[in-house]
Design goal:
heterodimer; A: Rossmann fold; 8 helices; B: alpha/beta; nine-stranded mixed sheet; two-stranded antiparallel ribbon; 6 helices
């Protein structure tokens, strides 16, 4: 049997989470089909047609599913499910929205947020925000799975040549009306997928001081994060929260500034490749997991870092 | 209008969890337990709607052991009217939870069900979506703004790219994000009052719900321990290390 991957896209371009999900699928079975459902989505299909490992693309191009609401996407999946042993989507807010719905309609469970594939029915997934790792076996005939994208390398965007099959379905009307979509207009990369994240904690003392992080973030093309303590204190919005009750991140470089390292924060970032901690308290637990620790007053250290980065850039020029 | 809120009793978010030596799960004995954080937002939102007069009754339901009554009492102390405990084993799956909730929904006939967007123990993020699926109701997931107008709600939902706004016909299932509101603390008088509020106890067996697991937990392990690295003397050394040793800048 084949594996169906549900592509994440905005009808214009494919999101990189799709590439990580295809990688996870390739560890289950080599016959991978990609579902692209949306409206006027030819460009997405075009981009997807050369992806490494994808044999076939199923294109559903229908105005009714333009906004890919969960009630519609789950209908599409249910219609296709009999042809597949596994159905995968990224465990982004996109995949999390429709996948449990599709699974439940077919009286199936779902395996959420897998970080490893042991065999076609056995997977690894973090629980308790990564403070424990579970090995789980699915007993369902069809496996509905969401994939932790940071745990799988993206597949190559060239090298494949998928056939394209256009599908059409009679989708039922739903009790939901799409009103608007407001994408945060940030020059910065998204927190969940940024290569570098710089986060501030209560040590920053107030919201205004988060500007000190902006300057460094600009130079490193980093996303800005925060500890729950900083969010609770009102320094910054909750959309920046990293941790068990916020976002889980695993960037190549994570810089924790004025963050002591509460368990619930560590849970959200300890999968990062390199961790830097800057704190004036040398007993701060964050130093226990940091690759590079700097005991310093952040109000002195941050401007210095900014200056050093400028020097590096000058050398590079 | 009536709202049903589902709450889960989980290990408190500030507790360092321990994996059992036999790898069968996580130690829950003698560990501080609390209401799942986003479920508190769900309770808060229901009570806010009651305070504003849009809602007449807020019913709390929890599924699990006898001790879940504590979690229900917390919600009653915040201002909910009454509770329902469905007594069940500790680890029933989201699909079985959704089926159990469906039973309660059919009995209570609420106009809306509110839940937290996910539990911080199993991290599944499934129950709300599954409940709305098997009820054949629309869903609003990861909601950070909620408004009611007659027979519909208008929601903003948190998506990775920003916000999505939907208008959803009632009845509906809504899962709540932490940004939705600031849960209140129960006052002492309200805690005392909550002790007198009724909690109905139902055995899960009496509902005829299939709770046989479809996902087997083979083992639960500690994550690989991350070793601390080195302390650097100053910013200059830090930048040098990041550039030439770690090669990440």
């Amino acid at each position: 049997m084949s594996v169906l991957v549900v592509a994440e896209h905005n009808n214009v371009s494919l999101k990189s989470s799709t590439l990580n999900t295809i990688q996870a699928a390739s560890q289950i079975d080599k016959d991978i089909h990609l579902l692209v459902c949306g409206f006027q989505n030819d460009e997405v299909v075009n981009q997807a047609s050369t992806l490494e490992g994808v044999n076939k693309i199923l294109q559903l191009n229908d105005e009714i599913i333009q906004h890919q609401l969960a009630e519609h996407v789950s209908q599409v999946i249910i219609n296709l499910s009999k042809n597949y042993s596994h159905i995968l989507a990224p465990s982004s807010t996109f995949g999390k929205n429709f996948m449990p719905r599709a699974a439940a309609i077919l009286d199936h469970s779902q395996i959420s947020d897998i970080s490893g594939v042991i065999s076609p029915d056995t997977f690894i997934r973090p629980i308790y925000a990564g403070n424990a790792i579970a090995t789980v076996q699915s007993l369902d005939p069809v496996k509905f799975i969401t994939v932790r994208t940071t745990s799988f390398e993206p597949v190559e965007i060239v090298g494949g040549s998928a056939s394209i099959e256009k599908i059409s379905l009679n989708l039922e009307g739903i009790a939901t009306k799409f009103l608007d979509r407001k994408e945060a207009k940030s020059e910065r990369p998204e927190l969940g997928s940024a290569r570098v994240v710089i986060s501030g904690g209560r040590g920053l003392e107030n919201g205004d001081n988060f500007k000190l992080l902006n300057e460094i973030a600009d130079k490193l093309n980093a996303a800005i994060g925060a500890s729950r303590a900083a969010v609770d204190a009102g320094y910054i919005g909750n959309e920046c929260q990293v941790g068990q009750t916020g976002k889980m991140v695993a960037p190549e470089l994570y810089i924790a500034v004025g963050i002591s390292g509460a368990i619930q924060h560590l849970a959200g970032m300890k999968e990062s490749k390199i961790i830097v901690a800057i704190n004036k308290d040398e007993e701060a637990p964050i130093f226990g997991i940091a690759d590079y620790g700097l005991k310093a007053d952040l109000f002195q250290a941050l401007p210095e870092i900014s200056k050093e980065l400028d020097l590096l850039n000058d050398i590079a020029k | 209008m009536k709202i049903l809120v589902a709450v889960k009793r989980v290990i408190d978010y500030n507790v360092q969890i321990r994996v059992k030596p036999d790898n069968s799960g996580v130690e829950k004995d003698n560990v501080k337990m609390s209401m799942n954080p986003p479920d508190e937002n769900a309770v808060e939102e229901a009570i806010k709607l009651k305070d504003s007069g849009e809602v007449t009754e807020v019913v709390i339901v929890s599924i699990g052991q006898e001790k879940c009554q504590d979690t229900i009492r917390t919600a009653l102390a915040m201002g909910a009217d009454r509770g329902i405990l469905v007594k069940a084993g500790d680890d029933i799956e989201p699909l079985a939870v959704a089926k159990t909730l469906k039973n309660i929904v059919e009995k209570e006939k609420p106009n809306m069900v509110l839940l937290g967007k996910q539990a911080i123990d199993d991290y599944c993020n499934q129950t709300g979506q599954m409940l709305s699926a098997i009820l054949n109701w629309p869903q609003g997931c990861f909601v950070s703004e909620l408004g009611i107008n007659d027979s519909a709600i208008t929601i903003s939902r948190e998506i990775d790219e920003g916000l999505e706004q939907l208008e959803i016909q009632l009845p509906a299932v809504v899962t709540c994000d932490l940004r939705l509101n600031e849960p209140r603390f129960a006052s002492l008088p309200n805690i005392m009052k909550a002790k007198k509020k009724p909690i109905e106890i139902i055995e899960i067996e009496s509902l005829g719900v299939d709770t046989i697991p479809k996902v087997k937990y083979l083992k639960v392990e500690e994550p690989p321990v991350r070793q601390g690295g080195v302390m650097v003397a100053d910013v200059k050394e830090l930048i040098q290390k990041l550039k030439y040793e770690a090669k990440v800048i």
